[in-house]
Design a protein that fits this description.
11 strands, alpha+beta, 29 helices, four-stranded antiparallel beta sheet, five-stranded antiparallel beta sheet, elongated, about 65% helix
């Protein structure tokens, strides 16, 4: 028969896994026990949010401010509120500051000060305090518990701790909770579905073992990587989501094929080898397709993309490796016993096997292919429409639910203070001479005047403003006094040749007008001064620029490389092109729905989502790169089976119907499991992970229903024999 005559590399690999099945199983058991010890500690090692555009003008400016003007490396913001009294009078301020005396005694606390930003009228029941630290963000996270223990709210007040490190701390807490919550929701349902699919306990448990093994091993590896490299705290969620989804799905296809081969091959050894030859080869190419999408994130120079790429590549690679090593070995050990411990009556399984529903659907679709392709394309394009109105924003405390302290404190700050002063444009200025000299003051005065003339500038704060804009001669004379210089250095406004300018914009810090203002400032002639524009609006612009500039490269790389991988897998020119284009449609539709939910608030309450009025700037790329390969899985498995049938019969329509019949129930079940596992992350706490869970679930749902059941058979019919055309050198290549 053809299967035994064509023993390629995958057959030989499967045979080797059977031969050494006990050794392979024992080795993996030792690896998993070792990795599990470190996997549980891994989430606490990831302390970077990953959004800093390192090497940009804004990043260089902030580093210079820290080095030259002694800006604090990190800070906490304490937000006090009261239901019974005003907190803006001197008595309340004194009470608050006195309560912070124990905190002030800590050696790494650089200073404590009442927030000077302009207040919003009618919010006198809210007060905030800046706590400046001589610690990096990582060090501040390590000291978080000690710092929090020193903070107690005075009688009649409540205090919330927010700012960079507290938000990261809460995200670490949320990450650990999210992983447990997703597993508690997703795994029992996945097990139930697997029991219904296979009808046996062993058949159902093997895919779960592969999913959990890939997650455990990946988290263990990243624990060691985190000792030397800064990794984003979104990594554990990404690894858990992808590992469970992909690991279970790949194992599902392998176990299903193995049970089929047990009835066709002479013994267990050949069944394992044939399973690897066919299903193992399919998941290898599927895994490569997923990896291509993930590798696309490397083109964007932000740590969140690099980290998610690392985690995704590791967990998907390990899912493929574990399925083609540990799983094959376990199937070799269990052999026919995999069909023992039935939980579903035999007559039900016979009825399922005898079903020709999927082939009838395929023939029905192929009777009216043009109409159905037009209708399905129209539906998918309609789902894509919200993308045209997508607004991008930067991640903040809003990523967390209001129940988290740092999010609640941030909400109070937004409510009580002018956002423009809380998040201004900061300009690091370096002169040739000390800023106490008249020449440097003259340069600063000229540059400040230019800034004030720009459209969109509400106010410019500098050392000159502190000197009440005196004539330069008087200002220079005043700066000759040591106490005045000390005051400026204490206020972080000037020191030696270095100074700080603060530009308060007229518009919201996250608006397009403020983006334009940052660009105008950077283009402005500084008149001999060296300047670097930083602060929240500049960071936001630099981050968005890095993403937007590389989007065409990312999309082009993923689509082109995926096409050539599928070209090698299918040995056809049109089949991979069709798969890539259909995947773009389903992916665009899922992103459109994500925009409708997260930006526009559609069904947000039902999904326990806080609509922010924008989409996180990282989300479109993350969803595209993560989802592109995974959502294509089912089309790859379906077309692989159609190709297999066509090589036997040479009949396009019959091969399409038979391919859908043989994979229909299995792909539907696999898609349902993936949707349940990934969809469980919609009900977790971190917004980016919720959005990724929603986007991936929708893409898989669309791909496994509209694309697989309707579009694929319709296009197979329309293209006819053209589906199978390929240059001679491709057709002559043997199977892997």
């Amino acid at each position: 028969m053809r299967e035994s005559a064509d023993k390629g590399w995958f057959w030989l690999w499967g045979e080797a896994m059977y031969r050494y099945r006990r050794w392979v199983t024992g080795l993996w058991a030792a690896i998993l026990v070792f990795m599990a010890l470190f996997a549980v500690q891994a989430p606490g090692q990831f302390k970077d949010n990953g959004f800093t555009p390192k090497g940009s003008d804004s990043d260089a400016g902030m580093i210079a401010l820290q080095e030259k003007l002694d800006f604090p490396a990190s800070n906490f913001i304490l937000v006090y509120s009261s239901d019974s009294r005003e907190l803006t009078d001197q008595e309340a301020i004194t009470t608050i500051l006195n309560s912070l005396k124990p905190l002030e005694e800590l050696p790494y606390v650089a200073g404590i000060a009442i927030n000077p930003a302009t207040r919003v009228a009618g919010h006198d029941h809210i007060q905030s305090v800046n706590v400046f630290l001589k610690l990096t963000t990582d060090e501040a996270l390590d000291k978080f518990t000690e710092i929090k223990a020193k903070i107690t709210a005075p009688d009649g007040m409540k205090v919330d701790i927010t700012g960079g490190p507290p938000i990261l701390h809460d995200m670490q807490v949320a990450t650990k909770k999210d992983i447990v919550k997703a597993e508690v929701i997703g795994l029992p349902i996945a097990l139930l579905v697997l029991l219904l699919i296979f009808g046996t306990v062993l058949g159902a448990l093997l895919p779960l073992i592969v999913g959990l093994a890939s997650v455990t091993t990946t988290l263990g590896i990243t624990y060691f990587i985190a000792q030397g490299y800064s990794l984003s705290n979104f990594l554990p969620n990404m690894v858990t989501m992808l590992g469970l989804a992909v690991g279970i799905d790949y194992a599902l296809f392998m176990v299903s094929r193995f049970r089929e081969e047990l009835n066709q091959q002479q013994d267990v050894r050949e069944a394992v080898a044939m399973t690897c030859q066919m299903a193992g080869r399919s998941i290898f190419f599927s895994g490569v397709a997923v990896l291509i999408g993930l590798l696309g994130m490397l083109f964007i120079e932000l740590n969140i993309f690099r980290t998610l790429c690392l985690g995704g590549v590791l967990v998907v690679s390990l899912s493929v490796i574990i399925a083609n090593t540990l799983l094959l070995s376990l199937m070799g050990l269990f052999g026919h016993n995999i069909n023992r411990w039935n939980v579903i009556p035999s007559r039900w399984k016979k009825r399922q096997q005898a079903s020709h529903l999927w082939s009838r659907i395929a023939y029905s679709v192929m009777k009216r292919p043009v109409l159905l392709v037009v209708i399905m394309s129209g539906i998918l394009i309609t789902f894509m429409l919200p993308v045209s109105d997508m607004k991008l924003g930067l991640p903040s405390a809003g990523m967390l639910p209001p129940s988290y302290e740092s999010r609640h404190g941030d909400d109070l700050l937004t409510e009580a203070y002018d956002a423009r002063e809380m998040n201004p444009i900061q300009i690091y200025v370096e002169a040739e001479e000390e800023f106490w000299s008249e020449a440097s003051l003259r340069q600063m005065a000229a540059y400040t005047a230019k800034l004030r003339e720009l459209d969109g500038v509400k106010e410019v704060k500098s050392l000159l403003a502190m000197l009440e804009d005196r004539p330069l001669e008087q200002a220079a004379a005043l700066l000759a006094r040591e106490e005045v210089r000390s005051k400026l250095e204490e206020e972080k406004l000037a020191s030696d040749r270095f100074s700080l300018l603060i530009v308060v914009p007229e518009d919201d810090p996250e608006s397009k007008d403020t983006e334009r203002l940052v660009k105008q400032i950077r283009e402005l002639d500084a008149g001999g001064l060296e300047v670097k524009v930083t602060g929240g609006p500049a960071y936001r612009l630099d981050m968005l620029d890095r993403i937007n500039e590389r989007i065409p490269v990312v999309v082009g790389f993923v689509m082109v490389v995926t096409y050539f991988v599928l070209l090698a897998a299918f040995r056809s020119v049109l089949l991979p092109l069709k798969a890539v284009l259909m995947n773009d449609l389903s992916l665009g539709a899922s992103i459109g729905i994500v925009v409708a939910v997260f930006q526009n608030g559609f069904m947000a309450e039902l999904l326990h989502i806080t609509s922010t009025g924008y989409v996180d700037a990282t989300l479109p790329i993350i969803i595209f790169c993560v989802v592109f390969g995974i959502s294509m899985d089912y089309e790859v498995f379906l077309i692989s089976r159609i190709v297999e049938e066509y090589e036997k019969t040479g009949d396009n329509e019959a091969s399409t119907a038979e391919g859908l019949r043989r994979t229909g129930s299995l792909i539907t079940s696999a898609a349902f499991i993936l949707i349940v596992v990934v969809g469980s992350f919609i009900y977790t706490d971190i917004q980016i992970i919720k959005a990724l869970g929603l986007g991936l679930s929708l893409a898989v749902l669309i791909d496994a229903t509209l694309i697989r059941i309707i579009v694929v058979p319709a296009l197979m019919k329309l293209l006819g024999r053209a589906n199978w055309w390929a240059p001679r050198w491709i057709r002559q290549r043997s199977h892997g």
